Amino acid sequence: xxxxxxxxxxxxxxxxxxxxxxxxxxxxxxxxxxxxxxxxxxxxxxxxxxxxxxxxxxxxxxxxxxxxxxxxxxxxxxxxxxxxxxxxxxxxxxxxxxxxxxxxxxxxxxxxxxxxxxxxxxxxxxxxxxxxxxxxxxxxxxxxxxxxxxxxxxxxxxxxxxxxxxxxxxxxxxxxxxxxxxxxxxxxxxxxxxxxxxxxxxxxxxxxxxxxxxxxxxxxxxxxxxxxxxxxxxxxxxxxxxxxxxxxxxxxxxxxxxxxxxxxxxxxxxxxxxxxxxxxxxxxxxxxxxxxxxxxxxxxxxxxxxxxxxxxxxxxxxxxxxxxxxxxxxxxxxxxxxxxxxxxxxxxxxxxxxxxxxxxxxxxxxxxxxxxxxxxxxxxxxxxxxxxxxxxxxxxxxxxxxxxxxxxxxxxxxxxxxxxxxxxxx
Length: 426
Hints:
Layout: E1 3-4, E2 9-13, H1 16-19, H2 27-33, H3 49-62, E3 67-71, H4 74-77, H5 86-101, E4 105-111, H6 117-121, H7 130-145, E5 151-156, H8 158-167, H9 178-205, E6 212-224, H10 229-252, E7 273-283, H11 306-319, E8 323-328, H12 338-350, E9 356-362, E10 381-384, E11 389-392, H13 394-405, E12 407-408, H14 410-417
Parallel strand pairs: 2-3, 2-9, 3-4, 4-5, 5-6, 6-7, 7-8, 8-9
Antiparallel strand pairs: 1-12, 10-11
Helix pairs in contact: 3-5, 7-9, 8-9, 9-10, 11-12
C-alpha cells in the first residue's frame, strides 16, 4: 500500500479573496451583499490572512509544505482605475519574501475569479480593452515582485468563471448571455497570451532565464451515462464547449468554436500545463450529472481518482510540457475521507508515467468558498470563522508526513487511510 513520489514538489493552493478578509472593493463582496451566497456570509471575514499571513506561512512550514500557490487582490493593488496602492504591493512583497525565507516556493496567480468594482462596473472582461487593462496590472505587480517570483498563473479557471458568471448567471456579474460568454473567452485568451509574453520579456530584461508561466485549467472527465448516441454526443459537446476549445485557444492561440478568433500568432504560450481536478461529470443531456452509486463528497461531487491520471496523460500527450496539478482536493467537513482522497489521487499521479512536477492541494485552510460561503470546508486545516482558530486536521498531518517521507509509508497508510476507507458518502 505504500508508494513513493519522485521529482514532484507538494504544496497547497489558495485564492486571495477566499482567505484575506476585510476588502470590500471586489466583485465577490458586492455579490454577497446582493444575496449571491447561500449562507449569507461574505469574504469580508474569510481567514483574516491579510493580517495573519505570517502565522499561516509558519503553519505551512510546520506541515512541510514545499510550494504555495497564492494570489493577489487586484482591487487592493488598483483600487481605482490606474491608481495603484504602494502599501498593498509592499504587503505582497513582504509575503513573498517571508514564504521564501521559510523554504516555500511561490506560484503567483494574477486573476482568481474576482475583479475591482471599477473594472466590473465599466464592463469588466467584456470590455474590448480588458486585456490591456489586465496587462497594466501585471506590469505593476512585476515592478515589485518580478525579481522574486519565477512562476506565474495568469488566470484561474477561465472556463468556470465564464460558465458561472455569463452563462448560468450564478456568479458575478450574473449574466445569462452566450454572446457575452464568447466575448469574455476571447478577451481572457488574449489576456493570457499577452501576459505570458510580457512576463517572460520582463524577467528576461532582469537577467532571469528560469521563468515559467501557465494558467490553471479546470478539467474534468465527461462520460455518457449510457450507450445511447444522444448521451455520447452530449458528453462530447459539453467537453468541447466547457474545456477543450478554450484550453487550446489559451495555450496555443488556435481558436475554434465557441472561442472567437483572437488575432494572435499561433504558438506555444505555456511552460507548464496547470490542471485543477475535482470530479467526473456523467452526462445524459446538456447538464451535469453524477453516476448512480458513486462515492461523493459533501457537495455531492463524485470522487473519481482515476480521472486525475487520465487527464494528466491526456494533457501531457497533447501539449508535451511538465504538469502542475494546480488544484486537487475535496469538501469533507468531518475529515472522514480526505486522507483516502489524497492517497488515491497521489497514487494515480505516482503511476501515471508522465512528468508531474508540482501538486497543490486545495486547500490549505477552510475558507470563503464562493457561492457556498462558509459551508464547504476543503482545508487540511480547520477554521473557526468566529474565533479564527486554526486546527490541523488528521489529513493535514497525513499530508505533512507524505512530504517528509517522499511518499506514503505502510505505517501512515494504516494510521490515516485505512480508517477512511469507508468514509466516502454514497
